[in-house]
Protein 1
Amino acid sequence: MSSLIDKILQFINTYYLNPIRTDEGYNLVNTFTWAIVLGICIFGVFKLLNKLEVKITPRFIASILPFVLAGSSLRVLEDSPADIVHPPYSYLLITPNIYFLVFAVTVVCLWLSIRLQKAGLIKDFHHIFAGLGLTWFFANIVILLHFQEVVVGYVPLFVIGAGTGLTFAFYLVAQRSKSSIFTNPLNLSILLAHLMDASSTYIGVDIIKGYYEKHVVPAYLIELTGTALVMYPLKLIIFIGVIYLLDTQFEDDRQSSNMKMLIKMVILILGLAPATRNTIRMTLGI
């Protein structure tokens, strides 16, 4: 019996705890596990937003993005060699723990914003909600700039410029094809986030060097092709497939529409979060 327990503990340490302690990245086991957890969390968030009577609109998605920026910059605080945050608290800032931390703070801020609106103290909760996220983000940036210097200042220009340029090129092609799905502003925002993520990976791995991809499939493809440029077609293929399915397979009723928008929000976050973290890290030479 003790031998079985030892094997289970060893399995947990090898595939779950050690990657968190050492920040060594993902493996097939924890990647599959976190994907299942994400799926469960999506349904949990769906129920929570329904309870808070929040309709998931492009406006709501825009108001939540500052918290994505805040969470990503908070993650860089742990990355910093200046030891801004020490163990065991630093473990809260490592994936996947940081997702739960940022989620909790975001929910509290959302609840507070909605309560202020219902109390008649503000007209629109979206504004104060986004403002709280932006305040958190700028506070993180100020702390980072206090401890770190800007080392590679062109990184944000490249990431934003390449992502925007490629997204605009895709928009022109979609417009000529008269595709309402792929000219939709929210869908293009999702593409922009993921192309910025691809750009941050490319510049870190191929141009600056010294950085590497932690996710299993992209890391394998980069090793297979010998270049992080493979991230661009990978992102496009996934984007086109997923967005097409979302916009053609969901029904038009309110519940289905809300779920579709929630999934789109999650996909956008999964692109913007690593793009932001990577960009800040490389800019500061972390």
Protein 2
Amino acid sequence: MYQNKFIAFIDILGFGALVENSENAPEIAQSILDTLLSMSPDKLQESMYVSINEESIPTSELIGLKNIIAMMNKGMNNAHHVTISYFSDSLVLSADADNVIASQSILEILSKLSVELWDKYSILIRGGITVGKLVHKDNGPLFGPAMNRAYFLESKEANTPRIIFDQHCIDLFRETSTFSIFDSLIEVDDKYSYFSLPTCLRYITTASSLALSENKQLESARKAQTEILPKIQKIISSSISQKIKDKYIWLEAETIRTI
């Protein structure tokens, strides 16, 4: 019954406080809704495979080209499927461990999501990635030892706004030569390999598929990269609890070191 899968368990930081504050603040409630919609499986899968720079395509050709791209993406999704579930403030992505394209697509999806949530909603994510036994069905059951482990990594080990890897998981990723494209995404400390918002920005603007073409998504990422440090420092200087401030102080140091 179990299959061997890569799995990422992701949590939106500060989501509970946002919900509490949204009762009498329609703009916060709208931000929560927009955030959750941006994490929907259909929306995330759109960013996995082939995309086009619409600004460079003549209007007369755009509809036909979009149809072709949609067909190509559908075929890629069937062959290299990433299963995505989300509930409340949590997101789970998984792929067969022996499907290189699908498993690496998880990293691509999460790097783009991390930047989008920060750029549009000033939201950070934290998570854990492992590989192991799992049942994960589209619109269906989700359970297994790998799910428990990914949740443990996120909730007990990650500590700061980053996504950490189990060692045997990153080792398996690195067995594939194409994983070298993610070198600019990954950092290592004395305990874990991980990636964070600053390394996502570094990867997207230098090594991702977006970096090869000029489009609005790349332009937004570059803008977010130039604005991240003053944005973090403004949050640090605001009236927030020390526990939250410590996370941003870590993020500030990480940004200075990696970008």
Protein 3
Amino acid sequence: MEQFQIETAQNISISQNTAHLGDRMLAYIIDSFVILAYTILIIWLLVSMDIDFGDMWAAYMVLGLPAFLYYVLLETFMDGKTIGKALMKIRVVKLDGSKPGFSSYFIRWILRIIDVTLTSGGLAVLTILIRGKGQRIGDIAAGTTVISEKVRFGIKDTLLRDLPEDYVPTYPQVTVFKDPEMQTIKELYDQARREGNHQIILSLSEQVKKVAHITTADKPFDFVDKIIKDYSYYTQDL
């Protein structure tokens, strides 16, 4: 799983985790199963209706559209996810952190013919491994990638941060906060960072500055991160 940095219009740097190739392949298998199951159901339904072949073909062309447009429809209306992606907790995002528009999903869908369908996914896998940032050809053309939303647990998921021995705190004012308050700040910050929610980080930054009476030139992302680390430093040192 690789990381890449995005710089938002608010000058906030966000680290995103690209989806693991295995998760993307499993999502593809699940989606293929869903499409196949839907197609079989439609064929069974049409056969059971005992209609003329010509009418059956016309009906299949209409009822089969959801299967044909599966990826572009679901990613558009499910915030960058399909059923497979949702189950694997991955989704499509723009490289600049913004939400993709229909045109981006459409480009990915059209180029899926080249890097997935015609090559049985081989070209997509090769491109992802070589290109980095989790991009197949469709992603490169659309300016998108696929990120993981899985929560990884470790020491950073507790109140304390794992600090280097030579860490030097910047803001002693953080001691005005209580443990529950800092835990809330940390949880909101970590969630916003995972989801690329820049507005929450901006709001956290402004609120912390107001409460702790801090004036700083640090970017909101860096500032809130330092606040959490400084609080860990002072509480560990008590």
